[in-house]
Structure formats: C-alpha cells, structure tokens
Amino acid sequence: MHDETPIIPGNDVQSAEYKAASRRLNRKMDVALLPFLSLLYLFNGLDRSNVGNAETQGFSRDIGATPDDLNLAVSLFFITFVLFQPPSAAVGRWLGAKHWINLMMVGWGIFTIGHAFIRGRSALIAMRLMIGAFEAGFYPTAVAYLSTFYCRYDLAVRLALFYGQYAIAGAFSGSIAFGVFHLKGTRLHNWQYLFILEGALTIAMAITAWFWLPTSPETAWFLNASERTFAAARIATDNGDVHLHEHSTGTTDKKRLTKRDVTETAKDWKTWFILFFNICASVPSQAFSVFLPLVVQGLGYSSIRANLMSVPPYICGAIGLYLFALSSDHRKERGYHIVGGIGVALIGLIITVACHTSHAQYAGLCILLFGSYVSAPLTVAWLSGNTPEPGKRSLVLGVNGLGNLAGVIGSQLYKKRYAPRYLTPFYATLGFVAAALAGYVAYRLTLEAVNSRKRARLARMTSEEVEVERVGETRYADRKWTFVYGL
C-alpha cells in the first residue's frame, strides 16, 4: 500500500484488493502493537499470581500471618479488582487507553515491590487491595483499545494471544520462582526477591509503554498516512449499519463517553445475563492462577518442584485458548466455541476428582486448564463485536470484568484445610462449570432468536425506513433493527 493510493473501505469490502490491504495492515499491527501489549498483560498476571508461588516458601508464616489470612487477602483483592473495573474502564475511555495503562502499571508495580517488606495480616490485606485497585481496569481498557485497531472477526485470535499471557504468566511465574527459590545465603527471604524483581520489571515496562503505544490508529507510528486513514475507516465499516459517534480527525471520538452509553449499558439484559455464567466458567482459571502450585504440591511434589510442575498445565491453557480462538475467528462463531472449551474443562475436572493416582490427577489438571481459559477472552470478543458504539463497548467490557468475582469464589474454595486432594473445592468447581455450560448454550440460542426477529422486522420495512432506523436515535447501537448479532 502506498501513501498516494489510499484504500478506503466501502462497498468493496469483499474485494481482493481490500482483503489484501486489510491483511497487510493486520500484519503490521501484529508485529508492532499486539506482542508489546501482550507483554504488558503478562506482567499483570505475574503480579497477581506470585503470592501463590511465595506461599510455597512460607510467605504467610514469615510475615506473621496464617494461610487462611492469605485466602482472605486474595478474596479481598478480587473485591477491589471487580468493583473498580467499570469505573476504571470509564477512566480509560475518558483519559485515553495509552495514558491510563501506563499509570495503572506503575501503581501495581510499586505495591508489588511493597509485598517484600510487609508484616502482619493487615498489611497483607492492604497490599492486595491496592494491587486489585490498580490492576482492575487494565484488561477492559486494553481490549477496548485493541478493538479500535482490529475488526471484530480478526479480534478473537488476537485476544487469545493477549489473554493467553494470563496462562503464560502462571507458567512464567512458576519458572521465575523456581530459579529465585534456589538462591542461597541471601540477606532476604527468597520470596522477597520474587516480589522485588517482578515489581521492578513492571515499572520498567510501564515507562517503555509510554513511548511505544500509539494513542489511536490515526496516530500509529508504525503505519504510513494512507494506512492510518484505512485503519480508521475499516473499523467504521466493520461496525455495520449503525450510526456511530462523530470522529475528530487524527485522534479519538469527539464524545468519548455519553450519558446514554451509561444508561444503555445498565439496562442491557445481555450483559447481565452472560455475566453470571461468565463468573461460573471463570472459577477454575481464576482459582488456579493463584493456587495451582499449592494443588500440585498436594499431589506429592516438594515445595520448589511444585512451582516447576505448575508450568505444563498453564502452557496447556495457553495452547487450548489459542486453538479455540483461531477456529472461532476462522468460522466467525463464538458461542459453541466457548461451550466447547467449557466442555473440555468439565472433562478435566471429572478426571481429577475420579482418579486416584497422582499422574492421572495431574493429567486431569492439564486437560482442565486446556479448556478453562477459552471462555473469558472469547466472551470479551463476543461482547465487543456485538457492541458497535465505542463508549458503550468500554462500559460493557468493564461490567464484564465483574466476572473476576470468580476469584473470590476460588480463593474461598481452595483452602489449606482441604489439602492434599482438595476434593470439596473440585466438586464445587465442577458444579459451577456445568452451570456455565448450560448458560452459554441458552445465551447463544437466545441471540439467534433475536436475530430472527430483527430480520423479520427488516423484511417488512422500506429502504427509507431502514435508513431512518440506521441513523436515528430511537434505538441505540446494537438495539437497532439494522444490527445483527454475531453468534
């Protein structure tokens, strides 16, 4: 693509020229933007999960707390993490994703380092509350940011690579912990070095991100002038027959967030319906992001080796997510792919609780995590693609972040009193996952019925009525008869 011959999408979106230009644009973003943003999310996962690694070395004992205090602190982390997600996502929309991402990272990096020097139960709880508050808006802000660069059926596989860092973070944290915990003759406890190292790296990455991340596609340093024009225009086309906010040249929406965005999000049944089942589906991934090393230790591994043996299940989770997301984008289908991932997780849970040998139980954990990470990012891609208004999309993704309440459930389930097999927590998790399976099937079938109703309504409308509906204000964004939900 040359600067003097920009390709502006319109009615030619199926043309070979358009598709080739779009692929070239995606490749540039895949090289310059996606890997770096994914690396930032890796540190988000590291600083969330490292307390599980530290606990295998007696973290709670050394600071004058108990294992139950740690479970409580992890639960309270998710309280602030969940409650702050919608307002934090709104701040990200108002302030701009680039600026808010940097500020959040510096904040949680500082409090991660602070973990190395705390004493007592109250200090532990305070640190986890602050980590939760600063990490809360990162994921919805980053996803909303990516949705301004990629079209909706290019997004899921990118979100898989992005969200997959959450699984990779567990593996990476286990690997780092395995190395750090071999240090001998140090002035500090080994777990203190783990917090200091990971917190310092987070702050360093935040400073780098300030210079690396563009504000929007129109200002992307890795695109030429015609590509920037094309990038902005194809997103507008991808949103379909919906009248969107007015855009200002070269930056972002003139109206970043409106009162109607807030009210429409609050009364959107789809968001609240799927949120409940997203919580159920996320219990395994949220719980094991912290407690997998302790569960693996319960299979008979030493405290240091348990950190290393937690790596393969996390790798399985990343691989499963990527394969499901790749298929989801290729087939342009979300619902049944999510159901498939939940089904795999259910099989892994059954193997884990039904088998009695440590090798079979470990294999069950690998299968469980292979499917556990699928639902959350594909749900985000589903909601993002079905919410064309950028302001409402940011809020919907923020509300969807309430799915992290699964972390509160998981942290209360996987307590030390249930070690070594953790049968009661596993049975409870199985119940949550089974409920999620039924809920996602019902959600997809409901959207299919709504689409049929919309098509029937459009068939009775004249072309003039269709245009009035497209640009009118009576129904908003995805509620318009002209917008068809992706399934």
TrEMBL record:
GO molecular function, a single term: transmembrane transporter activity
Tell me where in or outside the cell this protein is found: Membrane
Q: Which residues form the Major facilitator superfamily (MFS) profile domain?
A: 33-454
Q: Show the Pfam families listed in the entry.
A: MFS_1
Q: Name one GO cellular component term.
A: membrane
Instruction: Name the PROSITE patterns for this protein.
Output: MFS (PS50850)
The membrane spanning regions, by residue number, are 70-88, 100-118, 130-150, 162-181, 193-213, 272-296, 308-325, 337-355, 362-383, 395-414, 426-443
Please report the record's description of how this protein sits within the membrane: Multi-pass membrane protein
Keywords carried by this UniProt record: Membrane, Transmembrane, Transmembrane helix, Transport
Q: What is this protein called?
A: MFS general substrate transporter
The major lineage groups are:
Eukaryota, Fungi, Dikarya, Ascomycota, Pezizomycotina
